[in-house]
Amino acid sequence: MSDAKTVFEDDRIVVRDIWEELPRNDNWPYNHRRSGRYRLIRGRRVNRVYWHHTGGGILRGADGPKATARYCVRDPERGGRGWPGMPYHLFIPYQPETTEDGQLVVYQCQPLDMWTWHTGGKDARGRSRNRYGVGVVCQGRFWSRHRLEEEPLPGQTGWPSAQQMAASEALWQGYLKPTLGLTDAQLSGHFEAGKPTCPGEQLEAWVRHVRG
Question: What is the full DSSP assignment across 147-195?
């Protein structure tokens, strides 16, 4: 269990900040020779939260977000992205650890004020999704009607776990929506921003259900 600082908790989830523990490029967060930088903007105005899935395998606990961050910062010649750091602000493990009180453990991987590269492009009003958005990622690769030919990865069913779905609901309703001053209408998914397979059918249905 991580000793990271707790930034939020209620009776359902605990959000632990592991930003300082994650891999970054050496000159983070400034002027990476390939990719520019992420930007910390104090009091950043956020108008939307985008749900994603990692599209990859399963590691337990904080090893999951650390592996995702390693892939994102690895040089493209070595099979990575070459980005300044972890693009997602929150990470929900496929099988979250639980506290003694039964709370699900979720990881904060970037300050909410950090402008990262989680979604890309512009919204219907011409605003940068990254500049004004927060990215949440669920660990795993989930079934999509747009990708019928792929089999589930080892250790996965092709669907989010029940704990992931519960943590998603608690994270949105208990932490992100009130902290950022948003409404349910401002919840979204990568499927609405150019990647129809992400975060998969069940999480897409959840996003649409929450929005009513």
Answer: -TTPPPPTT--SS--HHHHHHHHHIIIIIIHHHHT--GGGEEEGGGTT-
Please say whether the beta carbons of 7 and 17 come within 8 A.
yes
Strand 90-92 to 104-108 pairing: antiparallel
Lookup: tokens for 83: 């980005």
3-state secondary structure of 134: strand
Long-range contacts formed by 96-99: CB under 8 A, 24+ apart: 96/163, 96/164, 96/167, 97/1, 97/60, 97/61, 99/1, 99/14
Question: DSSP secondary-structure letter at 102?
Answer: -
pLDDT of res. 26 = 61
Question: DSSP letters of 11-49?
Answer: SSEEEEE-GGGS---TTTTS-BTTTB--EE-TT----EE
Query: Which residues of the chain carry a pLDDT beneath 70?
Result: 1-3, 26-36
Which candidate, 15, 88, 16, places its Cα nearest to that of 52? 88
The helix (H) or strand (E) run that includes residue 108 is strand 104-108
Picking from 19, 39, 30, 27, the residue whose alpha carbon sits closest to that of residue 115 is 39
Separation between Cα atoms, residue 150 and residue 115, nearest integer Å: 33
